[in-house]
Amino acid sequence: MSHSKRTQVAIIGAGPSGLLLGALLHRAGIDNIILERQTPDYVLSRIRAGILEQVSVDLLHEAGVGQGVSSGGTVHHSIELVFANKRHPIDVTRLTDGKVVTAYGQTEVTKDLMEHRTLKGLQTIYEAQDVALHNFDSKHPSITYKVGGTTHTLQADFIAGCDGFHGVSRASLPSGAVREYEKVYPFGWLGILADVPPVSPHAIVYANSERGFALCSMRSMTRSRYYVQCPIDDKVEDWSDERFWNELKSRLDPELAGKIITGPSIEKSIAPLRSFVAEPMRFGSLFLAGDAAHIVPPTGAKGLNLASTDVKYLSSAFIEFFKENSSAGIDNYSARCLKRIWRAERFSWWLTTLMHRFPDTEGFGQKVQEAELDYLVHSEALSKSLAENYVGLPLNFGEHA
Ligand code: APR
Ligand code: PHB
Questions:
Q1: How far apart are CA 261 and CA 268, in angstroms?
Q2: Distance 133 CA to ligand 1 centre (A)
Q3: Is 116 part of any domain?
Q4: Among 97, 247, 275, 391, which is disulfide-ready with 183 (CB 3.0 to 4.6 Å)?
């Protein structure tokens, strides 16, 4: 009995990066198989980001899975900044000549992509254990993995490492092959999901306060997502729902705080904040994409969007290789991605630094943050810079300058 298979692109990880890559490749007639360590339910149980740039929405349509975001997404034309107890709208659409962002949960994106894969009969091997990469410095890479105790081999032309920050792909690289840049922030985000109407259904609210950062977001008109900055070693058990709601309200302006509708949380978790980039993103036949190669703190809502654009560049590169017999795209993949990634890293670091209370923020730091925020909301130039980064810079930004 043979346990060996072959495909053109072997994808590790069935998160948004791996699933979107699989859909884009399938659309172009390129075979792919996904290996995922967890079960589909486990993958869908992770609550993550929720704001899509137009480029990401366009990619879902291009991949043939745009129906869900069209019917279930909420288009936002502005964001609101709260500081010194006052709310200030930033009219993102006016500042970017008509661009918008769409609130649609990563869980929904993942679910749409999983259903599409099933519908098209594309293979995803869930609960694949002990995934190991071989010969990726050659043109004949392969992967071994176990299902139910039996070892299998998957041969491929290319391997796409879409297995997140803790995945096996980056960890398989020889030491010295990759340079890692990292910044860990001295706090976390406590997030809750609750089936209550969002306090601000038309604009995400970002709040700077002396008690720390807070964020008001949504998943739908009946489901809200809220966050408060918390000490990194806090435990979820330390935070009753009541404590959470009181803390959230204390960080908003009084008018908004008065409008919050509270209810029981249906999910509550604490996430650390980190900036991380691994360079380069290609090693022979292995390509990293999404969280496997980079992490941004969630403040700028860039994680899922960066994953989408990596995968756009990667699918175009593979399509060029298989259909046009050209290696130009794969040779340029890492450099092209990293330009966009560092721009998003800068934006996410800047917004995180501006909005959070740091151990050394104290009185002076707080006043400087408030002065910068005040400058920002009154300066067309700074507001424009925030807005154009928030909606996402164009895919080819700076490429033909
Ligand atoms: N073998 C097989 N699969 C693995 C392995 C492994 N050794 N290690 C990890 N995986 C799987 C994980 O179980 C997960 O389902 O890879 C998948 C990676 O998915 P994500 O972590 O969601 O990463 P990605 O698809 O790049 O999505 C990036 O997620 O964290 C957010 O902000 C981030 O929104 C962005 C998005
Ligand atoms: C979310 O809805 O989860 C969300 C929104 C905006 C962010 C981060 C997270 O900046």
A1: 17
A2: 16
A3: yes
A4: 275
- Report pLDDT for 397: 87
* Interval 47-57 mean pLDDT: 92
pTM tops 0.70: yes
Residue 300 CA: which ligand 2 atom is closest? 10
Q: Which residue among 217, 306, 386 has the greatest number of ligand 2 atoms within 8 angstroms of its CB, and so is best to mutate?
A: 217
Predicted confidence (pLDDT) per residue in 195-208, tens digit:
999 999 999 999 99
Confidence bin at 401 (pLDDT 50/70/90): low
* CB proximity list for 321: less than 8 A, separation 6 or greater: 327, 329, 330
Contacts for 244-249: CB closer than 8 Å, 24+ residues apart = 244/190, 244/192, 244/268, 247/211, 247/214, 248/214, 248/216
Ligand with smallest separation from the Cα of 219: 2
| Number of compact structural domains in the chain | 1
Per-residue pLDDT of 104-134, as tens digits, reads 999 999 999 999 999 999 999 999 999 999 9
13 Cα: distance to centroid of ligand 1 (angstroms): 6
| CATH of residue 314 | 3.50.50.60
Answer whether residue 383 is part of any domain: no
Task: Measure the CA dihedral 249/250/253/254, to 10°.
Answer: 80
Q: Is residue 314 part of a domain?
A: yes
- Atom of ligand 2 at shortest distance to CA of 49? 3
Q: Which domain holds residue 278?
A: 2-75+102-182+274-356
Using most ligand atoms within 8 A of CB, pick from 47, 225, 228, 267 the residue to mutate for ligand 2: 225
Instruction: Give the residue numbers annotated as catalytic, written as ranges.
Output: 76, 206, 298, 302, 390
**pLDDT at residue 2, as a whole number:** 54
* Cα of 253 from ligand 1 centre, angstroms: 36
Side-by-side strand order, sheet with 203-207 = 86-90, 78-83, 203-207, 214-220, 223-230, 179-194, 265-279, 294-295
Does residue 84 lie within any of the structural domains?
no
Ligand nearest to the CA of 289: 1
Which residue, judged by its Cα, is nearest atom 3 of ligand 2? 49
